[in-house]
């Protein structure tokens, strides 16, 4: 993947990269991707969606903190440290979604003697296929690659889809409460 292939948020115009960024990207991307693969426990020869997200986000942090990177006495170490923190944050986010979805699915509606799940109340907040996708990833433990292949998406395409679903879920769930 090259810097110009990084997914840019909608509405962003093409950006000029700092001098030397593309060279760092070209020489360090594979190393950072391999490091993220280790941290996410990807099987040899595979790259999960989260691993790809971590590598891309690492270089986004690099782009936003170019001066710190250039001033570092150990730029490779700085970049590796950033990647480790990005991976930790992504893992925390996944754990949070797993925990919250488990709670939502198993939380009884107040005052209901039958203990009907809150999930019944949430129907209609997000499309059932989106809820099913969240369940597959966060409750059933399916890999991003497995689900992406089933849907005919790339790993980064699935990551973008999940981001949009989670944003919609957060917004509508807040309105629900």
Structural class of the secondary elements?
Answer: mainly alpha
Mean pLDDT: 79
Number of helices: 8
Largest sheet: none
Structurally, the number of domains stands at: 1
Number of beta strands: 0
Order of helices and strands: HHHHHHHH
Q: Can you walk me through this structure?
A:
By secondary structure, the protein is mainly α. The chain has one domain (17-176). It has 8 helices and no strands. It has helices at residues 21-40, 49-64, 66-71, 75-106, 118-122, 128-139, 144-151, 155-176. Helix 2 packs across helix 4 (75-106), helix 2 crosses helix 8 (155-176) and helix 7 (144-151) crosses helix 8 (155-176). The chain starts with 20 loop residues before the first helix and ends with a helix. 21% of the residues are buried. The model has no long low-confidence stretch (mean pLDDT 79).
Topology summary:
Layout: H1 21-40, H2 49-64, H3 66-71, H4 75-106, H5 118-122, H6 128-139, H7 144-151, H8 155-176
Q: Which descriptors apply to this entry?
A:
elongated, mainly alpha, 8 helices, single chain, 177 residues
Summarize the structure.
The chain is mainly alpha-helical. It is built from 8 helices and no strands. The chain has one domain.
